[in-house]
Specification:
The chain is built from 6 helices and 2 strands, in the order αααααββα. It is mostly helical. The mean pLDDT is about 90.
Length: about 160
């Protein structure tokens, strides 16, 4: 699970290596997301979930992932730092807890104003279920980032 989640996060940041910095900030629509925002959001969401499954504190501010003025360099640096934190959090997960039902993952510990589409389902889910859900979420955003990259390249 760790290997797959980290690989798809790297797919997102790899898109930054194949475009110009201005293209990284390009949005396919006014209400859309740039690769910079996709990278910040995906890494923040993954770190938040893995830390909570591991029983570690999380201080995620989901809005900052969308509102922070990211640039190419800061997005790359932050993504690398967050992947290290995610890998470290995975090391803290007790495998026995993966099968136990747990409370829902808290999506943000700060107030949210940026609209969110939640994929949380009703009822208790195991830690493994939350990690699998996060893997799917990040894989979807990896495809989103790759498509946005291709559109940005075509546009310019």
């Amino acid at each position: 699970m760790r290997r797959r989640l980290l690989r798809d996060l790297e797919r997102i940041t790899d898109t930054l290596d194949t475009i110009e910095p201005a293209q990284a900030a390009w949005k396919p629509a006014e209400s859309g997301n740039s690769i910079l925002l996709i990278a910040g959001h995906s890494h923040g969401s993954a770190l938040n979930t893995v830390r909570q499954v591991a029983g570690l504190p999380s201080d995620r501010d989901r809005d900052s992932e969308f509102l922070h003025p990211w640039d190419w360099a800061s997005a790359r640096t932050r993504a690398a730092e967050m992947r290290e934190k995610i890998a470290a959090a995975f090391e803290k997960i007790d495998p026995a807890t993966l099968e136990r039902d747990r409370e829902a993952i808290t999506p943000s510990f700060a107030p949210m104003s940026v609209p969110a589409v939640t994929t949380q389902s009703a009822g208790a889910k195991s830690g493994r279920d939350w990690i699998y859900q996060q893997m799917t979420h990040v894989a979807e955003h990896a495809g989103h980032a790759e498509l946005t990259r291709d559109l940005a390249k075509a546009k310019t």
